[in-house]
Amino acid sequence: MYKNGKYQETDKMSDLICENYPMVLVMSRFGIALGFGEKNIGEVCRQNKVDTCTFLTVVNFLVEEQHSPSPVENINQCLSLETLMSYLHNAHDYFLNFRLPHIRRKLVEAIEDCPKDVAFAITRFFDEYAGEVHKHMMYEEKNVFPYVRGLLGGRKDPKYNISIFMKRHDQIEMKIVELKNILIKYYPGAGTNLLNSVLFDIFATESDLASHNHVEDYLFVPAIMALEKQIS
Amino acid sequence: MGTTLTIAIAEYSEIIRQGLEQILKRLPDFKIQCVIIAAHEQLHDTLSTWKPDLLVINPAFPGSFPLEQLRETTGCAQMKCAALIYAATDAHLLRAYDEQIHIYDTPDEIAHKLERMHLKETLPVDQEDEQQTLSTREKEIVVCVVKGMTNREIAEQLFLSTHTVITHRRNIARKLQIHSPSGLTIYAIVNKLVELSDIQ
């Protein structure tokens, strides 16, 4: 049971989004588009063939997480790991194929006027960072998700368990914090609106990545652990 | 810059739990992540999973005694334990805890108690060194790191022990808040410690 989750399926989808604008990203990662009119959350989910329980679990977790990220104590039995994985996969796709390349384009344009060597070093830093995020997320796509799909099919890979993932799952947002610090403290060129906009993007990405990690650590992993217990 | 701590709160009352959590999270100089334990059945599992630096626990919570055994079975040998006290409690019972947090404690008092438990990193830094600028030696080391040298190579070139190099690198990271070599490269170029041609 998600006990007293803030949002329920009878609440209007538009209220959820307007009250918590980061949820616009969550919604789209579940494959739900804008333009849902006055429909409530349950109706919009069913129309888009999204498991309502999983959607609400993630949404309520993220809304409450803003106050204090902590592991979900009793994971709702109706949570669909398949839906959650497709959500996580879409989030990965968003970061790797949209968000990071988008920031990179803006960043390169914003630092065009600063000395060439500085621009080079900043771009290189960014590319290294993007490479790390890529590695981090691909590990999940290539190792964790197939493992979980096996579990869902009743097969337990004897060589793997989710605690291996827990141990190596690092805070991927830490290094982007470093880029932010460097730009704020040491950027030598003139400040521009574009550079400020890049900074805002970085701030937003930092918290988005942190939330993404929290969903994995506090929702996804506990759900898998419960499934492992069931199977063994 | 704050000390990062994971603190588990084992307490039945949600009002007390959330109140304590809010206070902990707002303490300046600390970056605290709270893990909530609302029922004693979760005590062992949660501690084993999270390995917190500190457990703040209501002494009425079953399953926590003896504390030594709790530390051992959950693999949290280093974990400190503080009793969360509502009312007059037998002093004998409280002796086992590293500290006591009273519900009338002010945030300042709580911060002080966290420090007393040595949870706060006390970096061996002399005060004059606290400025953010790097010393000449540190700048030399930045240049070496940026050029891709290993700690051993740096030690050989500058006639230092690797241990000293590591200490310098830690201080550099602390002063600049930059931890990665590619981050240091940006710093080094902006501050004209290296030319791009040196590192390509």
Describe this structure in words.
- The complex is a heterodimer of chains A (232) and B (200).
- Chain A has 232 residues and is an all-alpha fold.
- Chain A folds into two domains: 1-78; 81-231.
- Chain A is built from nine helices and no strands.
- The radius of gyration of chain A is 19 Å and the shape is globular.
- Chain A starts with 12 loop residues before the first helix and ends with a helix.
- The mean pLDDT of chain A is 88.
- Chain B has 200 residues and is α/β, with parallel strands linked by helices.
- Chain B folds into two domains: 3-116, Rossmann fold (3-Layer(aba) Sandwich), CATH 3.40.50.2300; 127-199, Arc Repressor Mutant, subunit A (Orthogonal Bundle), CATH 1.10.10.10.
- Chain B is built from ten helices and five strands; from the N terminus they run βαβαβαβαβαααααα.
- Chain B has helices spanning 14-26, 43-50, 67-74, 91-94, 107-116, 136-146, 151-158, 162-176, 181-190, 196-199, and strands at 3-10, 30-37, 54-57, 80-85, 99-102.
- Chain B has a five-stranded parallel sheet with strand order 2-1-3-4-5, with helices on both faces.
- In chain B, helix 6 (136-146) crosses helix 8 (162-176), helix 6 (136-146) crosses helix 9 (181-190) and helix 7 crosses helix 8.
- The longest helix of chain B is centred in the last third of the chain and has 15 residues, at 162-176.
- The two termini of chain B are 33 Å apart.
- Classes of the chains: A mainly alpha (232), B alpha/beta (200).
- Chains A and B meet through helix 6 and helix 8 of A and strand 2 and helix 9 of B.
